[in-house]
Amino acid sequence: MCDSGIGTAACAATVERVRAFFDANPDLWSELVAEARRHVATGARFGVQTAIERWRWYRPVVSGGEAFRLDNTWGAVIARLLVEAVPECRPFIELRRSRFDGFFTAVEVGHG
Predict the structure, then answer these.
(1) What is the pTM of this model?
(2) How far apart are CA 5 and CA 26, in angstroms?
């Protein structure tokens, strides 16, 4: 469903880059999952893009020994990975239609 003009191969490559990033940085993934679970426990909405911005401002991201800049397009992918891994957080995350939707068939798009 990668209909944004960048092509299915490019979308698939982005999804794989995000997965590889979290494989190489499991502490960031654990931090994200823990934050999502805290929001579920309190019934508060959760913004993945907000978490990304917080990492940019307050937590230097280093991957492979070098400073790493998180791409803004990763937010949609990260949100979908999070919903796959922690389905109970789905009602607390708004997922808008994305060019990455076809790569996450178990994730329902729309308002949480």
Answers:
(1) 0.81
(2) 31
